[in-house]
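User: For documentation purposes, I need each entry recorded in a consistent format: the amino acid sequence on its own, followed directly by the corresponding structure tokens. There are two entries in this batch. Please keep commentary to a minimum and don't merge the entries.

Assistant: Recorded as requested. Entry 1:
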Amino acid sequence: MNKKLVLILVAVLLLGAGAAGGAVWYLKGNAAAPAASASAKAAEEKKPGEPLKYLTIEKVIVMLRRQPGDTVPHYMSCDLVISTTVKQEKEAKEALPMLRSVAVRALSALPMEKAAMMTIDQFVEELNKAYDETYAKEQRERPFQQVMIGKLILE
């Protein structure tokens, strides 16, 4: 009789712990949903199970804008990674020189003081905004889902 009571108590405790864990998981997932960025939403819009390809744009080096009275030049170097689908990979590879040019234009407009205070997510947001504007101007669809920062150096 004592063994049955212990087994029942253990089963009830395990069920309760499982339910509590499930509730935390569910609430955590729903609380984070509104905070999802536009690039994450774009990645979710792809068809489930569709494999992604990652292309690298290496060594994007720009001289950051100087402030009045600043005599020392400041540079930024970064490696960018874009995620694309297998179907769009060829088009994305053909667009790599243009993507590099847009990144240089967007990043070189930043003053050193602002760049030094920015987070990686803010750099990604600036780049995605620049890419969105470029593709909207050309009235074409972006051949990639998002841009990511692989490496970033401010000097």
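Entry 2:
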Amino acid sequence: MQRTNFGGMACSIARTLDVIGEPWSPLVLRDVHAGLTRFEQIQADLGISRKVLTERLHHLVEHGVLERRPYDRRPRFEYVLTEKGTELVDLLMVMAGWGDKWLAGVAGPPVLHRHHACGRVSHVDLRCAHCGEPMHAGDVELLAGPGAAS
């Protein structure tokens, strides 16, 4: 099946979706962040076909989100997050927070996040990088940026 290419659109959301918009990719990143770095570990956790996982890993490496590192004399590799990939995990934490609030039900969130700095279990809170105040959809105005389509 031909995949739509969103990478050329003058939209940062579309460009991000071009990298991780396919449903398996965020789950692969989640697993790598959680410490499942080898192909067999990821495949077992997700129940994904070898072919699809190979394609997803190749795509994420190609886009600089994951890096392949050898871990054995045989040609075996593990996958680690790059700086670019680690920042995408921040996005996944925001998505998880939304899912925890709106979809977790009576069972509650499946994963909790303990903040290293204070040792407390917390959630992601979007804040303005300049003033530190909360920053949510109703708190911003969208302006054309230098990369906007003409």
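Summary note for entry 2:
Residues 83-103 form the longest helix (21 residues).
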